[in-house]
Amino acid sequence: MAEKSGADILVECLIDLGVEVVFGYPGGAVLPIYDALFDHPKIRHVLVRHEQGATHMAEGYARSTGKPGVVLVTSGPGATNAVTGITDALMDSIPMIVITGQVPTQLIGTDAFQEADTVGITRHCSKHNYLVKDPAKLASVVHEAFHIATTGRPGPVVIDIPKNVQIATAPYAPPLSFEHASYKPQTQADASAIATAVEMLAKAERPVFYTGGGVINSGPKASLLLRELAELTGAPVTSTLMGLGAFPASSPQWLGMLGMHGTYEANWAMNKADLIVCIGARFDDRVTGRLDAFSPNSKKIHIDIDRSSINKTVEVDLPIVADVGNALTDMITAWKTHGHKAADLSEWWARIEGWRARNSLAYPESREEIMPQEAIAELYRASKAAKDVIITTEVGQHQMWAAQHFGFEAPNKWLTSGGLGTMGYGFPAAIGAQVGNPDSLVVCVAGDASIQMNIQEMGTATQYRLPVKVLILNNEYMGMVRQWQELTYESRYSNSYSDSLPDFVKMAEAYGWTGIRIEGPQELAAGIAQMIDTPGPVIVDCRVAKLSNCFPMIPSGAAHTDMLLDPNQIAGIMSDEAKALV
């Protein structure tokens, strides 16, 4: 075997592992790697404008393609700028490899120029991390890192490589096979647990499938299996924010999203169910509300590949540790083998239809101003003709409106920051998704405040001729912050008004984009159609009603039965205990 530099070994590893795209930003501590990448025919490097943008692009790429995202940044500030995206990927279970440069090994610990303890900093926000001090071990570390990032519960893995290790030489040959000595996620479910789950499901009178992002992470087959099991049992299906698209929104069995801004029918069904089958979700606080009032009379089955997520917040009656796809396959097989038929759930469905009749997603109409919900509904109508549509969002009211009013029929088409709630995620994620899906219509739904978090990435889209579309629901506020101030602090809007907003149309023109402004309801349909039909990147400044709030909602610390459907139900201010949960 010929000897190669550490930088060349890294690049060879990436090629052998099937990496096609790297999102990065060069700096002194990674110059050897960038030299190895120079004009490399097999790896496309996307130059970002900020390292946080690189991590979110890698997330968008990973979530829309099913392939791990790869990030390359320098030491010190390059690595620390990536920490938000690393944490976001950990919270939302996104497979990502973050390669960081480091000062030479002999300088580690001396406060050298652009030195930071990257391993220490990322220890608690990554699935695993490495500091590689020997070029001979670099190849095995890289292959192991990809294995860890993409198996079990996916997540980000950090590889910190000192500059002298990038320059030093060692032999490289790709491993013929790879198996980690101690990291062995349990992917197959216990057969007796599956049998018990199927019996519980067959006997249930008020069952609900509560699904999450784990269904999507398991792969497209898991979504198809979920649909088959739902059809076999006749049970209703709801989903977390992260699980949208795993079950088709057009299905009569779909209850919509549950949780803080979920539908009335989904939350009441969860509250009154006698059996909850949790599939690839983790009983997040935004879903459960007040724990002692969460689905108090139900038996609970929890299927998850992450053992630590089971019984972490909600005690369940039947835990099943397994890959969601494998567990669903086994449940379908057991259901058919035992000759089960869908139970008579007509009484249960009658109650659900009663809750549906409340039409909890209704919103007031206006001829004078654009309602933000209508803007999303129009985007949904207008984009149906596109061959393939991927929606990303920033974080805030617009994120919830998009989740409520855009109907997702397939997985990997909805990309949003759920666990960490990262403003600045959506736009770079859209760029990453467009890189991985060049023929898709990729639209980022944003707010006027959150779009500015990483707006510099407009330059990235321009450089690589990526036709991303950005629909800004501009209400001149940090909308969700303002809404909570209205609810909890008697409408004292402390620093939530977005003063001195830029002219987004002129900014679009400065970057070589097309800029569109929509100012009234009569312009909405034509403006969104123009956005979709215009070649190249487009930014739309859509001026929406400034004081619209996102309903329905469950106030922090409240039960599902305390759901608010409109502002008229809000009385007084919340308790200090509830404020602490906002």
TrEMBL record:
Enzyme class, UniProt record, top EC level: transferase
The keyword Transferase appears for this protein: yes
Enzyme Commission code: 2.2.1.6
Pathway: Amino-acid biosynthesis; L-valine biosynthesis; L-valine from pyruvate: step 1/4; Amino-acid biosynthesis; L-isoleucine biosynthesis; L-isoleucine from 2-oxobutanoate: step 1/4
Domain called Thiamine pyrophosphate enzyme TPP-binding: residue spans: 395-542
Necessary cofactors: Mg(2+); thiamine diphosphate
The Thiamine pyrophosphate enzyme N-terminal TPP-binding domain, residue ranges: 5-119
Cofactor remark: Binds 1 Mg(2+) ion per subunit.
Isomerase recorded as keyword: no
GO molecular function: acetolactate synthase activity; flavin adenine dinucleotide binding; magnesium ion binding; thiamine pyrophosphate binding
Pfam family, one: TPP_enzyme_M
SUPFAM superfamilies to which the protein is assigned, alphabetical: DHS-like NAD/FAD-binding domain (SSF52467), Thiamin diphosphate-binding fold (THDP-binding) (SSF52518)
Keywords, comma-separated and alphabetical: Amino-acid biosynthesis, Branched-chain amino acid biosynthesis, FAD, Flavoprotein, Magnesium, Metal-binding, Thiamine pyrophosphate, Transferase
Catalytic activity from the UniProt record: 2 pyruvate + H(+) = (2S)-2-acetolactate + CO2
Thiamine pyrophosphate enzyme central domain segment(s): 194-330
Any one Gene Ontology cellular component term annotated for this protein: acetolactate synthase complex
Gene Ontology biological process terms from the UniProt entry: isoleucine biosynthetic process; L-valine biosynthetic process
Family assignment from sequence similarity: Belongs to the TPP enzyme family.
Alphabetized PANTHER family for the sequence: ACETOLACTATE SYNTHASE CATALYTIC SUBUNIT, MITOCHONDRIAL (PTHR18968:SF13), THIAMINE PYROPHOSPHATE ENZYMES (PTHR18968)
Name of the featured protein: Acetolactate synthase
